[in-house]
Every structure is written in C-alpha cells, then in structure tokens.
Amino acid sequence: MDDRIARIQAKLAALPSTDEAVLDPVLSEQQISGFEDLHGIRLPEEFRQFVTLIGHGGYGPTYGVLSMDRWIPPRLGVHGKLAEPFPFAPDSYVSAWSGGEGGPTLPFPGTIAVVWGGCTQYTLLVVTGPGRGRLVEVIAGSDVVPHFHGDADFLAWYERWLDFTLAGHRDLTWFSHQMAGDEPELVDTLVNDAFETRRNAAAYTFITYPGPSASLLDVLAQALSTEPHPIVRKTILRALRAQGEQGRDLLPAALADQVPDVRCLAASLMTTNTRQGIRLSPRLRRTLADHLRVENDRSVRDTIQRLFDRSDR
C-alpha cells in the first residue's frame, strides 16, 4: 500500500469538524474491475487505491470528488471512449501557449470526471494516453485549452488539497492552477524551472500562500523583471497584488513591459475594491496619469482611462 494512504487518512481526521470532510464508502475490487471491464481500461493505480482504501466520492475541491456513478458525466461532449487515448500530454500545454490553433476536439476520450466545477467545467483523470494518471482541467464546449494540474497523480493531487486546506490558503479558487511546495521550493521553481507551466503554477500558488516571508516581495519583483513568458508575468502581477499595499506599489514596474496585455493588467491590479466601487491611491493615480501621457497602445490607454472614470478621487 502507498504510504500516502495513511497520510491522507490522518490529514482527513485532522480537519475541523466544520469542514464536513465526509467521503462515500470505499468500492470493492469487484466493483472497480466491473467498471474497468465494461470500458476496456484499467484505472491508474493511485486512483484505484484511493477509491478502495479511502473513499470514492465526497469531500474535495469545488463541489467535491465525484462518486462512481458520475465518473462519466451525462453532459454531451464531456466524455468519449475511455479506451481511446486523451490526445494531450502534460507538456503539450506549453506548446498550446505559444500560439497553437486551439483546444481539443470534443469529446475528451481517455478520461473520467473526478470533480465537477460548475456549468461545463470538469477536472478529469486521464486513464488512457500519454498523460495517464494525471489530472486535467477542461471546459467542455469552449475553445479554452485544457491544462494539466501540476501533481504527479491522484494521491498527490488530493493530498495537496488537504495540505492547502489545513495550511489555511486564503482562497482555493486557484487550486487547479497551483502546485505543492513550501516557500523556498516554490521560489526555486518560479526562478529556475525550465517549464513555463511550472513557473506559472508557482506564481499562482503565491496568490494564496499563507504567511509569506518578508523577502517574497523582492523575489516576485525580481522574477517579474526576468521572466520571459508574458502569461507567467501576468500571474506574477496577480501574486504581487495579493501581498497587499506593498505589492500593489511594485506593479508600476510592469508599465514598461513590451506586451500591452501585461501593461493593461498591471494598471487594473493597482486598484482596490470598496463598497463604493474601485479606488486608486493618490500615488498610483499620479503614476498612471504620467504613464498615460507616453503610452502609445490604444488598449492600454483605454484601460487606464476607464480606471480613472470608475474610481473615486
């Protein structure tokens, strides 16, 4: 038995009672093999252990882990034949970022649904194909490119959910984009990892990371100045804003970014939300006003002007 089974059971028991961390009863080997025989597949071993030793539905991300009767959703276009390979490998997300023609052809073969995120959003477990055992986030019926969770398998994914919950991450909305690790590990990934997807996941994790060190602001600011990929730079901007006023004060550096979308986001993130609407501090208002005089891109100019029109003075 995988050592993580005992760890997950212990962490489930450590959750406060208010979390209602209840899982449906485990499945028998006969039930699992019956499903596999019906679809001509074998489920990934880590998932098999979870559903036969821990539980097969209930407490988990969003609306919880789906039970066996919902592994193949009734919504048209979400599932295909389980024995056919899911066409994307984990690293294919990187090539999709670089300007590929779009997402997959629906339905999504080679997967079962393990979490319903609302509407047509699902977390799928790849059971056939190069990403076998990995979790992938999809929005059926859209051109949004699927993206793989950073976790190596289902047990790692579920244990990360428990770790984030127990550690007190400020918001679990970003869970599918984030990754496991303490602050030094995440910083090392953000600064040194060769894959854009992993650097982006590290940056996303800092959006909700509980109890960041005093040096994190400098690390994020340095990473922003050296990061080659605009999508990762945009996520770093969100991580900076999440650090509060000191983080927002570092956002003007991105007004010099070569990509207009990055400059637009930097300007938008300088605001704070109040009951009366959005607010710009006097210093950041002056910074944006000065930048508006030299900004040549119309989309950035329009963004800044809208902020001025909508914010109080």
UniProtKB/TrEMBL annotation:
Domain of life: Bacteria
Gene3D superfamilies in UniProt: Leucine-rich Repeat Variant (1.25.10.10)
The protein's name: SMI1/KNR4 family protein
Transmembrane segments: none
Gene source species: Plantactinospora solaniradicis
